[in-house]
Amino acid sequence: TREVHLAQRPTGRPTAETFALVEADLPELAEGQVLVRTTAMSVDPYMRPRMNDVKSYVPPFQLGAPLDGGAVGEVMASRSPDRSVGDVVLHGLGWREHAVVDAVRTTRVDTSLAPAQAYLGALGMPGLTAYVGLTAVAELAEGDRVFVSGAAGAVGSLAVQMARLLGASQVVGSAGSAAKVTRLRELGVDAAFDYHDGPVAEQLAAAAPEGIDLYFDNVGGEHLEAAIASARQGGRIALCGAISQYDAAEARGPRNMFSAIGKGLTLRGFIVGTYAHLQPEFAQRMAGWLADGSIQTDETVVHGLENAPDAFIGMLGGQNTGKMIVALG
Ligand code: NDP
User: Fold this and answer.
1) What pLDDT does residue 160 have?
2) Ligand 1 center to 241 CA (angstroms)
3) Residue 251 has pLDDT above 90, yes or no
4) Which of 73, 242, 265, 299 could make a disulfide contact with 260, Cβ separation 3.0–4.6 Å?
5) Shortest CA distance to 145 belongs to which of 206, 209, 194, 203?
C-alpha cells in the first residue's frame, strides 16, 4: 500500500519536496482494529501549521512519518464486533490508501443521506465548524448583518448559506477570484467581492455600508482589520482561521484593535472539537437543509494519492471551490 510522509518541514508555502510518496507494508490487525480501504481523504488548512515543529492544540506532524487527517473508506477486515466488512466509516488516518485503525476511532456514516465524502465536508468537520462558529461562538441573532471571509471555501460556503437560514438580514462574502464571487452570488449572498480587487476595508465598507454585526473570520490579517473597522456597536467576531498568516514568517495582526474597546466588540476564537456536543443538533439540521435543497455543496475533487500533495498546495493557493477532496481509487 502507499502513504504520504512529511519529508521536510516547509518554510513558507509547502512544495513537492515537502512530501514523499512511500510504499509501506500493512501491520497485522490487532484485537479491536479494522482495515479500511480509503476512498476519499481531506486536505485541510490546519495541516499547514502542523508541519511546523511548534506546540499547538494538535501535535506537529513527525518527519519521515505518514501525515494524517480526515478520511472515509470501506472496512475490508475487522477484528471488532462493532464493525463489519463493508461498513463505510469516517476515520482520522488519511494520506494513505489503507488504514489500520482502532474501531472505536471510526464512525459509521450513513451513505443513504449523502455520498461518503460529504462527511469530510458539509456533513462533517467543516460543516460543524460553520454551524458552531455562527451559533455558539458568534451568537448569530435574527437580523444580523454578517460578513464571511474565505466564503467560497469548505467552511465559508456553508457559513454564508447557514447565516441566511439562521436569520441574517444581510450576508457579505469575500473570496479570491471573479469566478468564486459569481458562485457566491448564486449561493445567495447579497454582496461579494474579490479581495485582490482593492483594499479589503474599502471593499467591505462598500458592500456593507451600514456595517456588520457578525464576522466569521477564516482569513485573519487584513480581513480581520477590515471587519473590526466595519463592525457595529456590540459586534461579534468568530475567530475560526487565519489562513493568510499560516505560511507567513511573521504574522500580521489588526492595527485597529483599540477600536474594539469603544465598539464593545467580542472576538472569540474556537476549535471545532470543543463543540462536539453540538454534533447531533448540527447533523439533524444539516440533513434537513441538504434534503430540502436549502444548502448547496461544492467540491473540488483531485484523483489519486500521488496527487494529494498538489491538492493540499492547491487548496492553500485557492484552487478549490467548496471542499477540496482527494478521491482514491
Ligand atoms: P477552504 O476550503 O476555505 O480552503 C482554503 C481557502 O483559503 C482557499 O481556497 C483560498 O481561497 C483561501 N486563502 C488562501 N490564502 C488566502 C489569503 N492569503 N487570503 C485570503 N484567503 C486565502 O478551507 P476550509 O474551509 O477547510 O478552512 C477555512 C478556514 O477555517 C481556515 O482558516 C481553517 O484553518 C479554518 N478552520 C478552523 C477550524 C476550527 O476549528 N477553528 C476548523 C476548520 C477550519 P481564495 O481563493 O478565496 O483565496
Assistant:
1) 98
2) 7
3) no
4) 265
5) 209
Numbered ranges of CATH 3.40.50.720 in the chain? 125-273
Q: Nearest-CA neighbor of 85 among 31, 25, 37, 24?
A: 37
The protein residue whose alpha carbon is closest to atom 10 in ligand 1 is: 318
Q: Is the pLDDT of residue 321 over 80?
A: yes
Q: Exposed, middle or buried, 68 (CB in 10 Å: 0-12/13-18/19+)? A: buried
2-121+297-327 under CATH 3.90.180.10, yes or no: yes
Residues within a 6 A CB radius of ligand 1:
44-46, 126, 129, 150, 152-156, 175-177, 180, 195, 218-219, 240-241, 243-244, 270-272, 315-316, 318, 320, 324
The predicted complex's ipTM stands at 0.99
Ligand 1 atom closest to the CA of 271, numbered from 1: 40
In ligand 1, the atom with minimum distance to the C-alpha of 324 is 2
Residue 249 has pLDDT above 80, yes or no: no
Whether this prediction's pTM lies above 0.90 is answered by yes
CATH says 125-273 is which class?
alpha beta
Q: What is the pLDDT of residue 99?
A: 97
Contact (Cβ atoms closer than 8 angstroms) between residue 326 and residue 23: no
pLDDT tens per residue across span 11-59: 999 999 999 999 999 999 999 999 999 999 999 999 999 999 988 888 8
Cell of 296: 448547496
The Å distance, Cα 215 to ligand 1 centre, comes to 15
> Which residues have CB under 8 Å from 280's CB, separation 6+?
none
The number of the ligand 1 atom at minimal distance from the alpha carbon of 177 is 46
Q: Which set of grid coordinates corresponds to residue 290? A: 441538504
Instruction: Quickly list H helices, the chain.
Output: 47-50, 125-132, 154-165, 178-186, 200-207, 221-230, 259-263, 279-291, 308-316
Q: Half-sphere exposure of residue 239, counting CA atoms within 13 Å on the CB side? A: 16
- pLDDT at position 58 is 85
Tell me what pLDDT residue 248 has.
81
Residue 235 near residue 260, CB atoms below 8 Å: no
